[in-house]
Amino acid sequence: MEEFLRLGIREDLARALESFGFQEPTEIQRKTVPALLARTDAFVSSSTGTGKTFGYLVPLLQLAPREADKPFALIVAPTHELAVQVEKELDRLAAAAAIRTRTVLLIGSAQARRQAERLRKGGDFVIGTPGRVRDLAAARELDLSGLSFLVLDEADRLFEKEALAETSDILDRLPSACCRVLVSATLPDRVRDKAAPWFRNPAALILDNSAVLRENIDHWVFHSSSRRKIDFLRRFEAAVHPKRCLVFASSNAQVFNILRKLEYLGFPAAELRSQGDKERRKQALDDFREGRVRYLVTSDLGARGMDVKGVDYVLCMDLPEEPTVYMHRAGRTGRAGERGVSVLVADIVELKRASKVAVRYGFSFQCRILEGGSVHEIDPENFFALAEEEESDRSVKPPLEAKRFSDMDGRRSRGRLQAPKGSFPSGSRSRTVRAGDPAPSPRPSGRKGSRRKKSG
Predict the structure, then answer these.
(1) CA-based, 20 to 30 A from 340: which of 150, 180, 212, 280?
(2) How many domains does the chain have?
């Protein structure tokens, strides 16, 4: 608890954090808490699962007055799920610290009239989505004139085209003394540039997101031509049998097709669409959290604001054009110090782009194939040679795992496609992963070779 007290956190809140199992502040909390206690505008960015939410909730609870006629803090989130999640965390922290708060949740799935009635009764903390917050502020039901703090959570999404008008309108309504805090797992320059006009010399509280990608997450890459990717799921399930696997695709059409395949194969699965029915989304998330389904299929948009612990595998059925999107996907595993595996299923074009993502964030993809119901590591040169051959030979079924290791040396000598240097490491030890195995720990480097070497 001493570490929390040294940051300036009040004892009741420090004890609350300790009761949640936190022994010391996370790195981002060490940066965020003192800055917000000093009421400094801030850009806060670190990987998912690093404690950003408590990093801003603790100072807000500590600074909130006991009695207030107008809202003290407004927290804006891009999705209903994230807004509800933040409300639950705020209420949990306040209860553990025996702090009495009045929280009002403003989201589009509830009646605006009832939310307006709640606001008239008073609320210290208002949490909501940008559209509903903007509408109630415009209707003068939400009074922002006395606001002390505004937090934009997952701000990269709030400054995208779909929410930019609402977010801008909220920022325009802030009193001059209001402290503005922008929070996001990724903070590209375009988001900073859009937010800059409303922030006053913000403190840049930014951690290297790539550290988590390198240290907590293993990055596997499998090759599959585009038309055979759906069939990959069957072989992956047989080889790995993940306990909780989050499956990403770039479009709702792909999400639908993947879900139908999983259901046809009898795998316990659910889908999370960005435009889906709110009750169905909630049920899907609850089923995934509680273990009633082991696969949750979603698009990048559908997964924003989702918080699920214990995801051991993230399965990317394509490689996003924007590198930061892959980082968002991969960051759903390996959270809170746990290890996880991010799996990329890539065609030959995506394999070439994957090297650029790995170089940008300082990690390496580990080449893998499926054979005999297990996952095996393969030398990058052979991996790329086989990938090119499979792409040119559409009659080979199934891809890669039917290729025997004894045949690889001849294919390697053809040298038609070279593995990009630096992002697909050669010389790493081969490891067999069988169904039900836990997410792997890092392996030391070993001898390079073209034949499989089983271990453990």
Answers:
(1) 280
(2) 2
Residue 428, beta-bridge partner list:
445
Backbone φ and ψ of 336, nearest 5°: 55, 40
Please list, in sequence order, all residues whose beta carbon lies within 8 angstroms of the beta carbon of residue 180, skipping any fewer than 6 positions away: 41, 150, 152, 171, 174, 198, 199, 200, 202
Residue 288's pLDDT is: 93
- Do 121 and 235 lie in one domain? The reply is no
| 182 and 81 belong to one structural domain | yes
Residue 316: both structure tokens together: 């990317």
Closest Cα partner for 279 from 85, 110, 83, 131? 110
Question: Residue 173: phi, psi to the nearest 5?
Answer: -90, 0
CA 258 – CA 317 distance, rounded (Å): 9
Is residue 288 helix, strand or coil?
Answer: helix
Through-space distance between the first and last CA atoms of the chain, rounded to whole angstroms:
40
* Residue whose C-alpha is closest to residue 355's, from 397, 382, 378, 326: 326
Produce one character per residue of 292-321: b if its CB has 16 or more CB atoms within 10 Å, e if not: ebbbbbbbbbbbbbbbeeebbbbbbbbbbe
Residues 79 and 134 in one domain: yes
Q: Which one, of 327, 394, 315, lies nearest residue 363 by Cα?
A: 327
For 415, phi and psi rounded to 5 degrees?
60, 35
Gap between the Cα atoms of 223 and 215, Å rounded: 24
Strands of 149-153's sheet in order across: 103-106, 125-128, 73-76, 149-153, 179-184, 42-45, 203-206
Domain enclosing residue 345, as ranges? 211-243+310-414
From the first residue on, what is the mean pLDDT of each consecutive set of 10 residues in the chain (456 residues)? 94 95 92 97 88 96 90 94 92 96 91 94 95 96 96 93 94 97 90 95 88 84 89 91 93 88 90 74 89 92 73 94 85 82 94 89 91 90 88 57 44 42 55 56 39 39
Q: What pLDDT is stored for residue 305 in this prediction?
A: 62
